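## retry 2 of 3
previous attempt timed out at serialization; input unchanged, resubmitting
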Amino acid sequence: MPRLNFTGRRRISRNHVTISVTGIGGIETFSGELELGSYGFPDSAAVIIEAFRQLELVRFDFGTVGNVAPPAICRLSEFGTLAGLRFRIKVVSTEEPRGRLLAVGDRITPRHAEQQLLSRVPLLAVRAQDLGREVWRLDFSIEPLLLVNPRVVPKKQLVQSVEFQSLILPEILRSILNRILLVERIRVPDDSDDWTSRWLKFAESMPGVGSVPDVADPESDLDWIDAAISSFCRWRGVDKQFSGFWIAKSLPEERI
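## retry succeeded, writing output
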């Protein structure tokens, strides 16, 4: 990206930018909805969204004004926590003079943060607990709670690992949906903050999944759950994530 020239920049209204944050198991991503048609920017101008907190900053290429194309996954794992996280959108000229900053929208608060001040309870809470010989356990005493044995591994280190995100997390989601549909026998998410509603809404929001089948049928329910897990894995790119990890792990160590 050419060096940015800030001369004559315009300001993008926050009403024309919506940043939504989604989180599960301590792994957050965001999506951005942009309304730039009224500003008269060249179609070729580059669109950039920056996530930042104090001196921490991660930049995401969102294509151009004429063809907004967000990355497949906009991960925020570099920040650890979402507290204090803000976003900035930039529109940058790709024509002469290249790199001129045409417009900026600054200090945009994520939608979830506006509603819950970034202090929301995670979709899947995690707690350290001595489990004897077990590394982790999914507890349903009140609502889904991931227990991690601190004698084996720190909980933050586990949930942020490639192994957890690619091998364990999809099966946790499967177990929770099985519990809701086949044990609790709940099929329709309501407007309450009950954990079953939160998880059903999350699953239904996955691309291509749709609503829970209207009629209770174990085979149809299992097919719907499979579709939700498959969509979740595509969304997170867990196959590529694990493949890259496994290839790197399998490479022979260099010898001096």
